[in-house]
Design brief:
alpha/beta; Spore Coat Polysaccharide Biosynthesis Protein SpsA, Chain A; 5-stranded mixed sheet; 4-stranded mixed sheet; 14 helices; 9 strands; 48% helix; 18% strand
């Protein structure tokens, strides 16, 4: 059996659409669970229109802590996370399951992800080949959104539960290098894919990429600020496009990845993150300049690096 679990908080407008897509799968050996993190809107009414397992907390746990609770409730050998505002096509689970049947020793099966805004595809995240070794994964996980693709794919329940429990342990008892702002952000979904994805692969030699397509809905920023605490906190903590905000964001990612990745990959990851932070600061800095002076600025930047 495969369990499709849908976490939700104040998702009355979109939850019905997500549930319908989960129930409409061509692969029939599934169960659909909705975990309501103490919503204050009409989410419960919308969910109860459908034949799914429904659980509701009395007080809000936040995404990180609720993840452990809902995975414990799953009955399937494999689990798939479906966000309450996203959808999956009818053959999605069948495609993922077929890949696991073909490669039973894989650590995870990844989908392709399409970002949809107002009915239009605005972005696509995919991998260039079918199989990635453990070494390739750990050299990619901090460079590429492969860490998100794993969460939207299919993994074993036991692995998902182990990774989620370790994540909660890090939130409840943060490691010493974690600054206070990062500790607070982690309570509200921030960085969960950066932490959980490397943990999912720690016992496997490879993962597999499939043709299954996950449909990620891009909603107005106000939706995420209202219903997902991490985005609101990012703004409060200055994780914006200012030089300080950019460097802080990359530093937080560096700290999180270093905690969960095998040590032999950490030095290379940190060097990459530092270069990315400096490059992003530079790119954001020149956006406001007249296009005619950009070549001169680039030349000066190159000269500075050569000193």
């Amino acid at each position: 059996m495969i369990s499709i679990w849908i976490p939700v908080y104040n998702g009355e407008e979109y939850i019905g659409r997500a549930i319908k897509s989960a129930l409409n799968q061509t692969y029939k050996d599934i169960e659909v669970l909705v975990f309501d993190d103490a919503s204050t809107d009409r989410t419960e009414e919308e969910v109860k229109k459908h034949d799914v397992r429904y659980y509701r907390t009395k007080e809000r746990l936040g995404f990180t802590r609720s993840t452990v609770k809902i995975i414990e409730l799953c009955k399937g050998e494999y689990v798939h996370l479906l966000s309450h505002d996203d959808t999956i096509p009818p053959d999605f689970i069948e495609e993922l399951a077929r890949s696991f049947e073909k490669y039973p020793d894989a650590g995870a099966v990844l989908p392709v992800c399409l970002s949809i805004e107002n009915g239009i595809v605005t972005n696509s995240i995919s991998m260039s080949k079918e199989i990635y070794t453990r070494n390739e994964f750990y050299n990619l996980v901090y460079r590429h959104l492969i860490h998100d693709l794993i969460l939207w794919g299919l993994v074993r329940r036991e692995d998902a539960l182990r990774a989620a429990r370790k994540h909660v342990g890090m939130v409840n008892n943060p490691p010493e290098p974690f600054p206070e702002q990062l500790r607070e952000l982690m309570k509200h979904e921030y960085g969960h894919s950066a932490i959980i994805s490397p943990l999912l692969m720690e016992n496997y030699d490879y993962l597999v990429c499939s043709n299954a397509t996950y449909m990620k809905t891009t909603l107005p920023e106000k939706h995420y600020i209202k219903n997902k605490g991490s985005m609101k906190l990012r703004m409060e903590y200055g994780l914006d496009k200012s030089p300080a905000g950019i460097r802080k964001r990359y530093n937080f990612q560096k700290i999180m990845f270093a905690e969960v990745m095998p040590k032999k990959y950490v030095k290379k990851m940190k060097r990459f993150m530092d270069i990315e932070a400096n490059s992003t600061v530079f790119i954001e800095g020149i956006k406001g300049f007249n296009i005619r002076i950009i070549p001169r600025l680039i030349q000066r930047f190159i000269s500075y690096l050569r000193r």
